[in-house]
Amino acid sequence: MNRAAVIAGVGGHVPARVVTNDELATRFDTSDAWIRSRTGIAQRHVIDAGVTTSDLAAEAGRRALKNAGEDAADLVIVATTSPDRPCPATAPTVAAKIGLGEVPAYDVAAVCSGFLYGLQAGAGAVLAGYARRVLVIGAEAFSTLLSPTDRTTAVIFGDGAGAVLLRPGRADEPGAVHDIHLASDGTMADLITVRGGGSEERAGGGTPREEHRYFQMEGKSVFHAAVRRMTQSSRTTLARTGWEIEQVDRLVGHQANTRILHAVAEQLGLPPERAVINIDRVGNTSAASIPLALADGMERGELRTGNRVLLTAFGGGATWGSATVTWPDLPVS
Ligand code: UT7
User: Smallest Cα–Cα separation from 165: which of 128, 127, 137?
Assistant: First the structure.
């Protein structure tokens, strides 16, 4: 039987502090009604001072290990847009915080598609025999990137982390990762940016601009590209897996906007109720979004052993991708 990387554990973590739409409406010219109707978001979780992306990632990683009944991993991959520092990578800090010893650990930067990029790297390491227990974590302290004067981004994003543990297994067992399709288009790099802090700014010779410290997004263009690319990529990975759309039990899309998720489901011909949605409670958590939705869907009983699950995301770069997974048999705490 064909070998596959298999999901052996899933964990999610959000910081305790909840910021409601009404609270944001006291700071920005916005309203609960606008945010709910345009995005589907009712609240998001935000870190307290002193908490970092690696703290969130380590907690999600610990939970995935516990869920798998494991206490060790031999590779850690952290997908993030909000690393603790521009240098070094956040993953070694995460491995140290979990207490995993001198394991290889590196970051993946693909913004909202980051988890799927990390999943492919992790699954590849398992299949090549380089690692037998791989923690793939998506983690964001995204609130640290948000401009205090930009209502568009302030209402969308939240903080959190999610993780899966991968192990070697068979393609016919629950938890198997069947196919991962990834793509990018660097000509769309300006749609989603944090312009400051990199070589472009430093080699530019000018004075760094305040607004370049913050995340900026051309929302409308991103919306349309996200629907188109997530739909295309989903079709590619479904065809490669040999699944018809009606065989998909659950769509776990990047939680960017409920309207995007419903549009993707509609274009694929999937009933909208098959989409796992937690954006209402956590907002858009970028690289953490898919693994956090997996942990949430598992805990709420929306993902059941043997379910055929389609994952899909679009993010800065531009990057996008999709994956097919059979849901594992995992203990629910
Ligand atoms: O995670 C990476 C991928 N990200 C995404 O996929 C996000 C994709 N984009 C989106 O989800 C949506 O484009 C947004 C939620 C960002 C914006 O929704 P939209 O329906 O595209 O709104 P819009 O930008 O076209 O703005 C509509 C109106 C504008 O006012 P006028 O010009 O019609 O008078 C905006 O100024 O809504 C206004 N507006 C707001 N009003 C209240 C924009 N942001 C806000 C706000 N509160 N926060």
Answer: 137
